[in-house]
Amino acid sequence: MTSKIAIVSLGARSAALAARLKALLPDSTVHAPACAACEADVHFAKATEHIGRLFVEGRAIVGLCASGILIRAVASRLGDKRAEPALIAVAEDGSAVVPLLGGHRGANDLARRIAAALGVPAAVTTAGDNRFDLALDAPPSGWTLANPEHAKEVMARLLEGEPVRLTVEAGDAAWLKQSTLPFAAEAGIEILVTHRAVAGTPERLVYHPPVLALGVGAEQGAPAEALEALVRAVLEEQELAPAAVACVVSLDLKAAEPAVHALARRLGVPARFFPAGRLLEETERLSGCSEIVFRETGCWGVAEGAALAAAGKDGRLLVPKRKGERVTAAVALAARALDPAAIGRPRGRLAVVGLGPGGRHWRTEEAERLIAEAEELVGYGLYLDLIGPAAAGKPRHVFPLGAEVERCRFALARAAEGRNVALVCSGDPGIYALATLVFELVASGTDPAWARVDIVVSPGVSALQAAAARAGAPLGHDFCAISLSDLLTPFEAILRRVEAAAEGDFVIAFYNPVSARRREALARARDILLRHRPPATPVILARNLGRPEESLRLIRLDELAPELCDMLTLVLVGSSTSRRVPRLFGADWVYTPRGYEVS
To answer: Model's pTM, two decimal places?
Structure first.
């Protein structure tokens, strides 16, 4: 089945169809124009450019539009047909389903699935699919055709009536056996299914099923080159096809080892990990047991144990443990094709995502992608609500304000269990938000598993940037940010920082200016600033930027008072050089000159 499917809707007319197809295709996201009536996981400005980017990224595309729109969007990007993703046109009213490209990379099967759900025929034009119910150059996911350059010639001969013999050395070739190919015991053409490194010819198509589990071990910080060299040597000596490797597997203590992940990337397969208790279950099948390994890891063998655990009870150890420079490797052969998603667990990822001030139009594409990829969402309820349709169907773990430590602990713990988690913040997650707390918890050593999580911080538009953009350019010269909340910082330390910033003549962004119990800090900060800059210094009060209730107010420094603000307000105070620029409508612009010569 094609993965990471983008359902592209061009407007409200196809919104219902998009929602229906998303329910049919779990691994999909809806993409639509940035309009009020177009609910979607991802919004775009120009359809053809967005479709072109998706195509280059290798995303399968289901366009709810005329086929010509899709063709024009990808025409300049066409290349090797064997590498092109599925591109399918579906009429807005659901009356037609046409696979345009990638028929041999899942488009035909995907089109048939969509068409069946809509009650219409799929307009599949590929000869092999129509005649034999398969395409020789489009094996199932995880399988590899070693010599795709010969597939067209072989298919042509089969269409002319020649028979073919099937030889299966490894794996379950049910997809071939269940087809209507003209199999015969004696034939000039052969289809060989094998885990061995065998060359294909015009008379023989060679398929490698994903039946090899590559177990590896690595000392902390072992060179990636050493592990890859060992694995390459093992595969070559044993005449095993790298394309038959289904996954790289190891102990969960190795989940953060760069060498393991570099090897998996080089082989183009997932890396999966097992707890020591699972590897202990394979002790009787190991070729030998190591006391040293047991003392360090809690199991008797990492490489062999992981390979056997991945291959399953019907698998067997094909290559016993081989040692290299601070690394080990072993290979197990499974009785049937392996599904990496059902093996062990992946290295967990925690994406600390900044939503920006609130509006989707200020959310980065990276943030959209990380939220779409996340299996679970963690955050304060208001922030999770701001995500909108992109959060639909994902488990939400809601924490109240004040529970920031608990929120981050929970997110790290879920990610440490192998999940893909998004910890959602407003603004930028590294500016008075949760990114720093995440790293503080990791550094505490509370749970060693947290250090093995893949942590990604995705920046967002901060409140100070948003306020400055709305007001003009007040951050054009040196500036700083100070939080007036004394929950985590002593009040006297806050005042010292305000004094230093005032003496340095910085533009200052005040976060958390007031609360229900805390009213003094803003007034004290104002009084300090008035000793260093003019009373008419421009002050911007920005509230709920990027949201429907957005407001922006421009006042003088001597007018600044706590009752003008709340916890949703950012206070941006100009320096002594900040200036106003009158405009015809609305409040004056504010800018802080950098020092350029202006005639």
So the answer is: 0.80
